[in-house]
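Q: I'm building a small set of examples for a reading group on sequence design. Run inverse folding on the following structure and report the sequence directly after it, with nothing in between.
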């Protein structure tokens, strides 16, 4: 179901709780909301739709992917980026990394560990920050 985007910074700055298998609907709602906002959005975190759970949805270029409890386990190649966010007005500068290694549970609740680089890595870092209550 497509959800309304939360813009309350106080809510967004709260750290999300770990997701469980019972949060499957949160991932589906995130994917639906991402698809509905694809003209101006490439990623979402559950708190952006009002759910304080550690679930993100990311546009991989060829498809949107949901990830439960994503944790960045390594980073390489620091750079300065300027990003926007559906929950915020305008763009803001932030530090990102060119390459990351990410552990997460996929939509079937299988543990995954993958390396990402470039634009997809930047999107993931932005959404993981949301899970940790960090906004740009």
């Amino acid at each position: 179901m497509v959800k309304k985007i939360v813009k309350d910074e106080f809510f967004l700055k709260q750290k999300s709780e770990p997701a469980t298998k019972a949060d499957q609907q949160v991932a589906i709602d995130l994917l639906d909301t991402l698809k509905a906002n694809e003209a101006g959005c490439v990623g979402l975190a559950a708190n952006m739709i009002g759910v304080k759970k550690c679930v993100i949805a990311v546009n991989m270029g060829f498809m949107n992917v949901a990830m439960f409890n994503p944790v960045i386990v390594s980073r390489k190649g620091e750079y300065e980026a300027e990003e926007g966010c559906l929950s915020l007005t305008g763009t803001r500068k932030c530090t990102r990394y060119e390459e990351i290694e990410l552990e997460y549970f996929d939509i079937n609740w299988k543990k995954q560990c993958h390396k990402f680089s470039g634009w997809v890595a930047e999107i993931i870092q932005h959404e993981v920050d949301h899970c940790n209550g960090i906004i740009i």
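Helices lie at 9-12, 24-36, 118-131.
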